[in-house]
């Protein structure tokens, strides 16, 4: 932390679990959070800080693990989210030099979620909000959720689009034959990429960014594969019969991506070429991925020292006003 020659390292997609929220999750969602990493997710002290130090992480932006508050009942979601965020605030205050936070947003109650985002930013000092997957089966581009994005633009904070377990119908049709032998196919193996990537594509196509032209969206895991596909998506949607517009331009103007759980030189270089280095931020995806794996990789990426420093912390400092 005190080495003046070392660039500031901010890891911005680092998860934890609130035991009280976990108790309220549906059985299938609770099982995912209560897996082999449960104790690590619940640790917000000694173990977390030890591994941050070992990996050279100066600051973690804490966010609740999937599915967080996206599967709650609309009638209780906002009250629960307020309690979860208040507890996260108290965690951050135990070590404010090392921790910051993204708010858990109660999207089952969209207007309540917008108000909770404002409370968390203005009163608790959070850096934005995170949303995990579908909200009780509904995509975020639906107009009922737009008050959240309107408030995010007004507050000048980003919304982080994080994946969650795919919809049950998608699992049944696309993945069930292989889930027993390859359970992570539903998450980081492929399901998360399809889930979050689809959310992002729908946000662009919905007209959201024409309505809120200063809105900022973050997506992890090196953009869920979208930087690699931007040219092809844009070319296909530019063919006759499609509504006029530029998908690629909209994505590059409104989205930021992180390195969470994807420490690949080719993926990084592709993303730099498509989005520009100023829109890429470092993240690990702790505790699912090792801090040291992430920082060791960043030491060897084929970029200039100036660009490496931007990704490690400079871009997050600017976007999150840290």
Strand adjacency order, main sheet: 4-5-6-7-8-9
Helices and strands, in order, run as: EHHHHEHEEHEHEHHHEHHEHEHH
Approximate shape: globular
CATH architecture: Alpha-Beta Barrel
User: Which structural category do the helix and sheet elements fall into?
Assistant: alpha/beta
The CATH C-level class name: Alpha Beta
Largest sheet: 6 strands, parallel
Describe the structure.
The chain has 322 residues and is α/β, with parallel strands linked by helices. It has 15 helices and 9 strands. Helix 5 (74-94) links the parallel strand 2 and strand 3 (99-101). The chain is globular. The two termini are 15 Å apart. 45% of the residues are buried. The mean pLDDT is 95.
Structural topology:
Blueprint: E1 10-16, H1 19-24, H2 27-33, H3 38-42, H4 46-55, E2 59-64, H5 74-94, E3 99-101, E4 103-104, H6 110-122, E5 129-132, H7 146-155, E6 159-162, H8 168-179, H9 191-205, H10 208-211, E7 217-219, H11 226-237, H12 247-254, E8 255-258, H13 265-275, E9 280-281, H14 291-300, H15 305-319
Parallel strand pairs: 1-2, 2-3, 4-5, 5-6, 6-7, 7-8, 8-9
Helix pairs in contact: 4-14, 5-6, 6-7
